[in-house]
């Protein structure tokens, strides 16, 4: 029985397990969606960027194409929640930096995880998509050396992702980590930059973080993580 607690942020795997290249899928989409109907992540073999909206998990692959993932496909890392925004405001003409600063200024949530969702028209959207890797998997720095980028102007869609306090760098990406999917699926991926022309900006703070680990994955269990270089590797690949 799924627990639909809207105050819980559920995460499978940690961002840090991607750093040494642990890209094996360790949770199915079917199971993941029991823990949330919205979110972000990546797919088995680091095969693209995942965007979960309204209970559907979409995969944006390196060619830019968007596929809906099936219940049997699996993910090494994903963060999900049940959509229930606490505040939604209608905004116009905001850059990425404007939005990020505004949310931290307008709400008292800098020390907690919160979801950010923006539905609207973006006058500029720039995304990137990671490329599918093959075993033996290279590390995150190697895997993200070349990343296809996608750009569109005046595109309507949904931006979704999370803010994590600095303390959680490694568990997640400290600061903002957001993905995008256009309504017509013509562009999506990990968001590098955008300007919001007009849209609804929502936030949803979480009282709890539920961190789930891939207990059945021998590679994860025996990995000796290099924590000293981890933060740099994460920022290089994910910011
Ligand atoms: Zn991402």
Automatic annotation (TrEMBL):
InterPro entries: Acetolactate_a_deCO2ase (IPR005128). One of its GO terms (biological process) is acetoin biosynthetic process. The keyword Lyase applies. Keywords: Acetoin biosynthesis, Decarboxylase, Lyase. This is Alpha-acetolactate decarboxylase. It is an enzyme of class 4 (lyase). GO terms for molecular function: acetolactate decarboxylase activity. Its EC number is 4.1.1.5. It comes from Loigolactobacillus backii. Belongs to the alpha-acetolactate decarboxylase family. It catalyses: (2S)-2-acetolactate + H(+) = (R)-acetoin + CO2. Pathway: Polyol metabolism; (R,R)-butane-2,3-diol biosynthesis; (R,R)-butane-2,3-diol from pyruvate: step 2/3.
